[in-house]
Structures are given as C-alpha cells and as structure tokens.
Write a structure and sequence with these properties.
Layout lengths: L20 H5 L6 H8 L8 E8 L16 E8 L18 E5 L5 E2 L12 E3 L7 E2 L12 E3 L20 E3 L22 E3 L21 E3 L19 E3 L20 E3 L4 E2 L3 H12 L1 H4 L9 E2 L6 H14 L7 H38 L2 H4 L11
Parallel strand pairs: 1-2, 2-3, 3-5, 4-6, 5-7, 7-8, 8-9, 9-10, 10-11, 11-12, 13-14
Bound molecules: 2-acetamido-2-deoxy-beta-D-glucopyranose (5 copies).
One 2-acetamido-2-deoxy-beta-D-glucopyranose binds next to loops.
Length: 384
C-alpha cells in the first residue's frame, strides 16, 4: 500500500553495541519480535531488511508474513536458525523476492524448507557449512532465477536440483567438489545461462558434465586444477569461458576460430612450446576484445626455447611442487635467476676492477714524488 514511498529502511546491526549487555553476556537469546521492538521499526513500510549477528529464540516462521512490503531479507550470522522447526517451512512470505542467509552455520536444506516464499527470485546461502540439499529443495520457488551456494562444503549436488526451474544464474564457487561426477551431467537445466564453479578443485570436464545445459553461455572455472579441456565437451551456445589460474598445459586451439566467442581467459596456463601454441597465443593476446575482461592473469606462460635444460627443468619442478593448482610464475623465476646471475657478475667485475685500481694507485704513489716534479719548489708541494 505504501509501495510508492521511496523509503527504504535498512536495519543493520553491526555489533552488539545496540543490544543491551544482558542479552549476550548472560547468553540470553531474543525472539524476533523482541528484537524488532528493540530496534523500534515500522513493519508496515519495511522493504529491505538486514539482520545480523544475533541469536534468535523461538523462531516463528510466520513472523515475516506480517511485513507486507518486505522484498529483500538478508540474514547474516544468525546463530541457531531453526532449520529444524516442527513445521518444515522456515519462513512464510509472499512478498520476499530476494532472500539471503549468509554465514549462519546451515548444514542442510530440506524438501519444504523454502517453500513458504513462492515469489523468491534471488536466493543466497553463502558461507554456511552446507553439505546436502534435497533434490526438491526449490519445488516451492518456481520463479527462482539467481542462486548462490558459494563457500559451502558440498561434495556433490542432485543433478535435478534446478531441473524444473527457469534459473539463469548459479554461483557454486568455493565448494569442495574436487571433481565433476563421471559420465553423467552435473546439472540439468534448459534455462541456465551462467554457471560459476571457481576454486572447486575441478580436475576434469567430461563429455556429459555440461551436456544437459543447452542454454549455458558463460562458464567460469577459475582457480581449479584443469589441465585440458575439449572443445566438444563445451555447450554449443558457450561464448564466455574463464579458465584463469588453471594449470592448463593443452590449449583449446579450436576455440578462437569460433567467431561467437566474446570472452576467453586462459591466463596462468603453462603450455609447452609448439608452433600451434605460439600462433594461438599471439592471436589470443592480440584479441583485446576477447581477453580484456580477464583480470587476474592476462597472459599465458609458455616455454620458449629453454635457456639451458638444467635450469629450466629444475625451475619447473620447483614451481610445480609449490603451486600445484595456482599459476606457477615460471617466467618470474627465470627473470629472477637471470637478474641474480647479472648481479653476481657485476659484483665479481667490481671486485676485480676495484683491486686493479687499488694496485695501480699504490704503485703510482710509490713512484710519484710531487715535490720533485714541480717547478716551483714551495713547501706546500712537499709531501713531508
Ligand atoms: C556472530 O554473532 C555472534 C553472536 O550471535 C557474535 O558473537 C560473533 O562475533 C559474530 N561473528 C561475526 C564474524 O560477526
Ligand atoms: C527442512 O526440511 C527437512 C526435511 O524436509 C526437515 O527435516 C527440517 O525440519 C526442515 N527444517 C526446517 C527449519 O523447517
Ligand atoms: C552474502 O555473501 C555474499 C558473497 O559472499 C556477499 O556478496 C553478500 O554481501 C553477503 N550478504 C550479506 C548480507 O552480507
Ligand atoms: C520435475 O517435474 C517433473 C514433471 O512434473 C517431475 O516428474 C519431477 O519429479 C520434477 N523434478 C523435481 C526435481 O522436482
Ligand atoms: C574481436 O576483434 C577481432 C579483430 O581484432 C574481430 O575479428 C572479431 O570479430 C572481434 N570479436 C568480437 C567478439 O567482437
């Protein structure tokens, strides 16, 4: 009713200063209404709410249903969020379309837990300890478009998790996946356009991994352990691929020939020298419109002709051990050792030259008598 009012009241408790000492010193918890009362806000006009750093007592799933204008609810570091209510639904609200619940130690999302928010479009559960999620977790959220489950402990996901949604974007960064399941699709979705799984420990992409994502156009797999990727294992609509900071040693040579690519990031790859690789890299680095959005590592490291075999192999081994999954600074190491050699040579030269000059001066001072060689035999020219 007051939607026209451009009044967004942000309630954000940064620390405990606003909460009376006895509530935390004695370990007491508050109900949501006690908490809201304490803050003294008008539930009728609330559009955007953030609640952080409290322990809630007797969570009432219907509490937010009274906030008719509430569209965005962010919860962060709320201890003991009752993901074990007698009622299986955690929260009822027809108005909320963006729900965030970060860093609140949630381990699992069950079948009906989120079904009380039918208009949810954007959902974030970052930095929890999530390990499992029910295949039907989003059954009651048919409008979901954007999902983030980043920084959790998932080792796997039900492949049908988002099958019946029209989800377009999914952020799954920093999970403990280690590998995509072998010989089956990781996810099934006709609508998913953007998927990100950076720092997931991925080593390999199978032919089936993205085969059920026909609309996927942006794939971000930074900071994984991928060494090789086959062009024909990628979805046909893909136009943006970010593989920065992977130990890629085989380049996807056919990709750049494909004119539909908008973005390709291969920085941090270490590829052996070959004519094809050199041509590819020259082209890749000239196509600024393709690689301009690659920020972390704009360049591919590749061996030119090794200077001496012993130096280059020992440097390679060293960097491989130290940075198994991170970008090895092979070039940096080579430059550093080159500079060290220069420095040592310089030091040796200075020493040799210095001793030569010293010798010269010493012999000169013996032979050379100023007093004897000056015409005017004044006292000031005498050494003694
Ligand atoms: C999280 O909230 C608890 C109280 O519930 C507080 O003691 C703790 O400092 C908060 N942690 C962070 C990282 O803010
Ligand atoms: C979440 O769903 C699971 C399984 O459906 C249920 O056991 C659990 O109690 C639910 N949690 C909440 C907070 O409703
Ligand atoms: C939740 O986490 C995401 C990513 O870590 C962050 O961008 C967002 O600001 C967090 N939300 C809140 C309310 O802190
Ligand atoms: C998706 O919808 C189909 C048909 O309605 C249903 O059989 C299937 O169980 C649904 N999948 C999930 C994960 O809910
Ligand atoms: C990028 O630039 C090159 C020429 O520099 C051009 O041939 C190519 O079509 C451009 N690609 C895109 C996606 O704009």
């Amino acid at each position: 009713m007051k939607k026209g009012v451009n009044f967004i009241l942000v309630l954000y408790i940064l620390n405990f200063d606003l909460i009376p000492a006895e509530h935390h010193v004695t370990g007491k918890k508050m109900t949501l209404s006690q908490y809201i009362e304490l803050i003294n806000i008008n539930t009728e006009i609330e559009v955007n709410m953030e609640i952080a750093n409290i322990a809630v007592k007797d969570w009432d799933p219907h509490y937010f249903a009274n906030f008719k204008e509430l569209e965005t609810l962010s919860l962060e570091n709320i201890s003991e969020l009752p993901f074990d209510n007698t009622d299986n639904v955690v929260l009822y609200s027809n108005s909320i379309n963006k729900f965030r619940c970060n860093a609140s130690k949630i381990v699992r999302i069950g079948k009906k837990n989120l079904s009380g928010m039918p208009n949810l479009k954007d959902l974030t559960f970052n930095e929890n300890n999530m390990v499992t999620i029910a295949m039907e977790a989003f059954e009651g959220n048919p409008r979901l478009k954007t999902l983030s489950l980043a920084k959790n402990n998932f080792k796997e996901l039900p492949e049908k998790l988002v099958e019946n949604l029209t989800l377009t974007s999914f952020d799954f960064d920093n999970n403990r996946l280690y590998k995509f399941p072998e010989a089956k699709p990781f996810l099934i979705s006709k609508s998913l356009q953007q998927f990100s799984c950076s720092a997931c420990g991925i080593t390999h992409i199978y032919a089936e991994t993205f085969s059920e994502l026909p609309d996927l156009h942006t794939l971000i797999l930074k900071e994984n352990s991928i060494q090789e990727i086959h062009e024909n294992h990628l979805p046909s609509k893909l136009h943006s691929l970010n593989l920065e900071s992977n130990p890629m040693n085989v380049l996807p040579l056919k990709i750049l020939i494909n004119p539909k690519f908008h973005m390709l990031c291969l920085g941090g790859s270490r590829v052996p020298w070959s004519e094809n690789n050199e041509q590819f890299i020259a082209r890749y680095q000239n196509m600024k419109n393709i690689s301009s959005t690659c920020q972390d590592h704009p360049h591919i490291d590749y061996k030119t002709q090794p200077i001496t075999t012993t130096v280059s192999t020992s440097t390679t081994e060293k960097t491989t051990v130290e940075h198994a999954t991170v970008n090895p600074a092979l070039l940096d190491a080579l430059i550093a050792s080159y500079l060290l050699v220069c420095l040592l040579t310089e030091v040796v030269l200075i020493l040799v030259f210095g001793s030569y000059v010293a010798k010269l001066l010493r012999s000169k001072s013996k032979e050379f008598d100023y007093a004897a060689s000056v015409i005017n035999p004044s006292d000031i020219y005498k050494i003694n």
